[in-house]
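INFO  loader      accepted 1 record
INFO  loader      residues=297
INFO  predictor   begin
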Amino acid sequence: MSSSPHPQAVSTFTSLTPLLFVALWSTGFIGAKFGLPDAGPLTFLSLRYAIVLVLMGALAWATRAPWPRTAREWLHIGVSGLLVHAVYLGGVFIAIGHGLPAGVTALVVGLQPVLTALGAGVFLGERVRPTQWLGLALGFAGVALVVAHKVAASAGVDALLGMLLPAVIALLGITAGTLYQKRYCHAFDLRTGSVIQFLPSLLATLLVASQTETLQVHWSGAFVFALAWLVLVLSLGAVSLLNVLIRSGSAVNVASLFYLTPPATALIAWALFGETLTGLSLLGMAVTVFGVWLARK
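INFO  predictor   done
INFO  writer      dumping tokens
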């Protein structure tokens, strides 16, 4: 006799999924901090995608997970993967690898919930209520307060502008990917879906890396740890949770969670690296949390 999960346990996990996603997703910048000194940004990502493909492919084969039945489904899942992984992560890693401070990168990508809210009305027909707009505005203001001291300590304006383009491309990628997946990828198996998403991401990332980087890796302990963490915790854990959230919630609700990433990253950096948390940063965290609560209310 087979037993199914207890309804209360399922309900508890569902309610905690957004918080778990934020906690895991926020460690991405920390992984980049550990690993990027030993490999080019796209070389690092190519290794990450290749390992994920091997692991998820083996899991899908061992568990006989169902594959999409039509070429159209394969195409939509693959395009969503290109946008969320290759474009978004590629832009973030290149920006940080070229010297853009993580705080500035987080601020740029922090515009995503606002762009997603605009796109949700146009492409998905979702109605964004006034309280949600207020929450989105407060969320962005809170993020700006959290990273204000890092922006102030950044390089000059000319240098910043030269490093901002990859971060802007990352912003457009994650926004388009969220909207595209919500509209065209209504349901797919997380095991086989991950394979379909990461395969084109690996091919595109490796192609660009081969033309712009040396593909050399210094296999230090820090690099191995960062690679393992980003594969297991981010690509397998956080990305799976993101797919679940996009499937079950509105695009605006999902996007608003990204506002919590910079404050959570700041807390992790404070705990691991002793980075300073100013009073303004703490105020920004409180404003961000309240804004996200309003947006998801």
